[in-house]
Amino acid sequence: MATALVAALAAAAAFVVVNAPQATSASWTSNKTANVAATAVLPAPPTALTCTSGSGGLFSPIPFTWTAPAGTVPTGYTLKWTGAATGSNTWPTTSGSVPASALLGQITVSVYADYGTWESTAGTQTRTANILVAGVLWSCA
Fold this sequence. Notes:
It is built from one helix and ten strands. It has one helix spanning 2-14; strands spanning 47-51, 55-57, 62-67, 76-83, 87-91, 95-98, 107-115, 118-119, 127-133, 137-140.
């Protein structure tokens, strides 16, 4: 009989009555904020694009200079030309040239400041090179 009593107690212990969930007043929120200021930066273009020579010849390249933009120093510059020929060259400093192979006719030259993979808008000045005698003489204004 003692074993029956132990078995009955064990069976009763297996069926414990659990109350339904009760409402609680405990709660919490976790708001995470950060004070971050973001500033949009428009890379500044170079200024004062000039032809360093008014004319040239004998298949010589057309040399240019320009003024570096104020503020952050560019990583380099790109001269681009369009017109009778289209192309570009990059330069590490504020001078460069358009190759003689671009002297097929009238071209317009612009300069851009490079900031890593970013490029500024074109400088405010453009210059036009005209071919006076095909591949032999050119003028720049």
